[in-house]
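On clarity, I found the account of how folds are encoded harder to follow than it need be. Since the whole study asks how a given chain folds, the encoding of that fold should be made plain. The format is easy to grasp once an entry is in front of the reader. For illustration, here is how one protein appears when written out as sequence plus structure tokens.
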Amino acid sequence: MSARTIDLNADGGESFGRWALGADTELAPLISSINVACGWHAGDPGTMARTIDLAREHGIGLGSHPGFPDLTGFGRRAMAFTPEEAAQAVLYQTGALRALADLAGVPLQHVKPHGSLYGLLMKDDDAADAVADAVGGLDDSLFIVLEAGHCAERQRDRGHRVAAEAFADLEYTDDGHIIIDPKNQRRDPQWCADQVAGILEGTVRSAAGVETSIHADTICLHSDRPGAEANAHAVVERMTSMGWTIRSFRDDDEEVS
């Protein structure tokens, strides 16, 4: 990303049938990219199509958000996938979203694994390699969104288009890894804004108070977290007050390429 420019993404499209989840409509005017659930951990074809329309309406970057086949646990429970299985799962779900997006005339910008699948890639280089290679093989213009640090830098070094991600509403371990929150508790909006301010200045503070360095191309908010809209407003206000411009990483990449 160029200086003073950052992407703000949200996980969305997580409603299912008659069950509504998330503040997608409220967050859409504030964010620059959205990651759409593809039916395995949340979402369904109708929700996917509506979220694609929302992305088109607000001009925000569209990405797939593939997860484990775990509707009951919302994809936040660990599963034993081989690298090949992880890659196939990502392609299968991304292909479904891409078919709907192609019909709607909305380009796919990125792929961001969800929940415990994202966690698997943080921990298993072979799985991360397989998934990144699959995404690049599908379309080498796609970005893959991975945790800022080793996971993102490894795939960038391997020649993939990577957006390194930090989180506004998740806590971190002392060694700079996110703590996936299975209960998805409400966060103080100013806590989220303070965390983002630190990230923009190049550091993140762990739950125990340890600071580690971080470089992020995109910052995530979760639309299903209670108080998501208040969190988003606080984060956007802090970003802009610090002189940062919110724009998608693809827009920024095209400007500097």
Notes: The mean pLDDT is 94. The beta strands are 5-12, 33-37, 61-65, 108-111, 143-147, 162-167, 203-205, 211-213, 218-222, 245-246. Residues 55 and 62 are 6 Å apart (CA to CA). The two ends are 11 Å apart (CA to CA).
